[in-house]
Every structure is written in structure tokens, then in C-alpha cells.
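Complex 335.
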Amino acid sequence: MYTSKITGLGYYVPENVVTNDDLSKLMDTNDAWIQERTGIKERRHIKKGDGNSTSVMGVKAATIALDRAKLLPNDIDMIVFATLSPDMYFPGGGVEVQEMMGMRTIPALDVRNQCSGFIYGLSVADQFIKTGMYKNVLVIGSENHSGGLDFTTRGRNVSVIFGDGAGAAVLSRNEEGSNGILSTHLHSEGAHKNELALQGPSTAHWVPEIIAENPQENIPYYPVMNGQFVFKHAIVRFAEVIQEGLDANNLEVKDIDMLIPHQANLRISQFIQHKLKLTDDQVFNNIQKYGNTTAASIPIALTEAWEQGKIKEGDVVVLAAFGSGFTWGSAIIRW
Ligand SMILES: CC(C)(COP(=O)(O)OP(=O)(O)OC[C@H]1O[C@@H](n2cnc3c(N)ncnc32)[C@H](O)[C@@H]1OP(=O)(O)O)[C@@H](O)C(=O)NCCC(=O)NCCS
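Predicted structure with coenzyme A bound:
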């Protein structure tokens, strides 16, 4: 059986920086509250007219990743595109990437697993490479949150957290050596689907009905989140799924060279770090600069950690995510 390894990484974030003070001009919030509860100082938002969209940002990140993998668009055998904020209701972003990058008529699969989307996508790509079906798979996580958030006080518990951006990884067949993706671990618990959700527009919540039936105060086409409930489940599931991955590979917490947690909230990352007794050097966080970019957060953080020389050949790198669904997962990598 083949194994797969990451051969190229890239990320893109819009130029437009939105600080906590900027948000406090739109809603009743403040820098101290946001930093204390989430660790976020600023995030990036697409600016009207800057040409960005979920798929466009995905292409920008993917172009860098392909370049670093020393591959051309025609070398890619499959696209896996993870997002909760696609440009269109259908089709998904994968086919847009295929078109914009001028790729062959390769398969394009869209993944809808929110904050766990990149790990789900990585796992799918890994399986296709392991079976020998494909040699190079492009995995993208990209989000345009700012296009669909409630920037009034009503939506402040959600809208201060999320930011826009994209990250991409090229997964390639490992021709030699035993490094690469060691294992991936995926979970879901639909019983909690409403705790962090955007109900419409959807077939159950069609736009004309929403507008007719709902007073302005309670519009279900903005995301809603039960923050404390999400927090409590996140800290349990993150720790569980990291341990599951370590156990599957006969590794211990002390063997982790770098943990890249999905950037949900700095307090969640710190809680996990404390629970697992990891040092500051063993955990990478960049939520302070970008907020929570959902499916894009892990590939953006992984790329930055790698660019900063914090990940070296032979290192044990652990990716872990938790989010809406609930869904959660981990990937254990020997770099
Ligand atoms: C969202 C989160 C930061 C809120 O922090 P919290 O300590 O749970 O705060 P609460 O929701 O209990 O709200 C406390 C108060 O702050 C207020 N508040 C909410 N958002 C605010 C904001 N942006 N600015 C100022 N005040 C705010 C609330 O209205 C509430 O006021 P009240 O006490 O007068 O009713 C926190 O619950 C969290 O991070 N949860 C996890 C979310 C997450 O990670 N989501 C992504 C998962 S992938």
C-alpha cells in the first residue's frame, strides 16, 4: 500500500485588516472583551471590489502550494475543496478551482464539515493516494465569512470571531521513506447540529419564506452559536481525538513536535495545551491575526509554522479540529 505526504503548502488572506476597534464602530463590543474571551486582535475581511471570493482565495493559496510542490496544474489528479461559505449554493468551489487553474477534467469533491473540513479533506485525499488511485491531490480550505455575518450587536458573539482566508496543501504519493500522513481520525455527533449552525437559505428555510415569516430580529440566515456549549464540547473532543491519533501510532504526548489546532479560540487552544501539558513550543497559534477561518485555519497555520521553520523533517506534527456538526478529527503526520 502507498502512503501520502504533504509536498506543498500555501495560504492567502485578503489585505483588508479589520481590528477589534473597527468592529466596535459597527456593534456594541470592545477590544478588551474580544481579546479576553477569544485572543483575537484582528482578522481579514474581503473588501468589496478586491476580486476575492471563496474560490478565488482558494486558487491563490493553491497556486503557492503547487509551486512549492514543483507541480503544474495538470499534475493534479483530484481537487478536494472544504468550505462552509461557497460562492454558489451549487455547484461547489471545487469545479471553480478546476476551471480557474485550467486543470484537466479531474474530479472535484466538495467537503462540508465546517471547522473540521480540512482534516476531513486531508483524510479523503490520503485514502485515494493509499489505494493507488491518484498520485497528487490538492486539498483546499477556504472561507468568506465576512460576506454572511451579522455585524450588528445582535450577531456580536459570532461575528467578532470569524475571518476570511484560504489555505491549501498538495498531498502526493510517497515514493520513498516512511514519513507522511500516518493516520487520520474522524468523528461526528449530529445531536448537536443546532448549537452552531446557519439554517438557511436551504430547502427547509427558503428565502421568500424566511423573509415573510421572520421579523427582522430573528433571521435564520445568519449563523447562530451557543458559545459556552461549543466551548465545553470542543475541549473534550480535541483532547480525545489527539489522544486517539497518538494511541493509533504508539506515540505519546511528549513525542508531539508541533500541534496545529484548528484556530477556534485562543482559550480553547490554551486549555488543550494545559490539559496535555504541552510547552509553548509544541503548539502553534495565529488566531490573534486572522480570527477563526474555519476550514482554512489549519492549512493557514500549518503553512505559517512551516514557513517560520517550526516544522522540520522527521517531526511528529498533529493536526486537530472541532466544529459545527458537531464534527471533529485529527491527523498524525511524520514530516
Ligand atoms: C463565544 C465566546 C467567546 C463567548 O464567551 P462567553 O464567555 O461564553 O460569553 P457569553 O456567551 O456567556 O456572553 C457573556 C456576555 O458577553 C456578551 N457578549 C457576547 N458577545 C460579545 C461581544 N462580541 N462583545 C461584547 N460582549 C459580548 C453577551 O451578550 C453576554 O452578556 P450578558 O452577560 O449581559 O448576557 C465563547 O463562548 C467561545 O469562544 N465559545 C467557543 C466558540 C467557538 O470556538 N466557536 C467556533 C468553534 S469551531
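The radius of gyration is 19 Å.
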